[in-house]
TrEMBL record:
Signal peptide: none annotated. This is Transcription factor CBF/NF-Y/archaeal histone domain-containing protein. CDD domains: HFD_DRAP1. Keywords: Nucleus. Its main location: nucleus. It comes from Homalodisca liturata.
Length: 115
């Protein structure tokens, strides 16, 4: 009897991931499994980032995850080094400062178009 393929319930839509991948002119055909694998990878990455950020938030006895917590998380973990440019404009919160007035949020990433 042939084995049944296990269907992965993606949290990030594979169709959208495929569209994003194909906006790059250098990307040719994309195998059907690739967007699903990237979806799972993205899920694990975001989980890892938020778990570390939650630990930082808890260590500061804060109730709300703030941009400064995300910045501290990204700067403290070597595996998040590639995100440093995104958080360089986020202000650090000082100990006496209210987290809600700590400054601007994260700057959205806008990829450069290749010519």
């Amino acid at each position: 009897m042939p084995s049944k393929k296990k269907k992965y319930n993606a949290r990030f839509p594979a169709g959208r991931i495929k569209k994003i991948m194909q906006t790059d002119e250098e990307v040719g055909k994309v195998a059907q499994a690739v967007p699903v694998i990237i979806s799972r990878t993205l899920e694990l990455f975001v989980g890892s980032l938020l778990t570390k950020a939650m630990q930082i938030t808890s260590a500061k006895n804060a109730k709300t995850l703030s941009p400064s917590h995300m910045k501290q998380c990204i700067l403290s973990e070597q595996r998040f080094d590639f995100l440093k440019d995104l958080v360089k404009t986020v202000q650090d919160s000082s100990n006496g400062e209210d987290e809600s007035t700590a400054g601007p949020g994260l700057v959205p990433y806008i990829p450069e178009r290749r010519t």
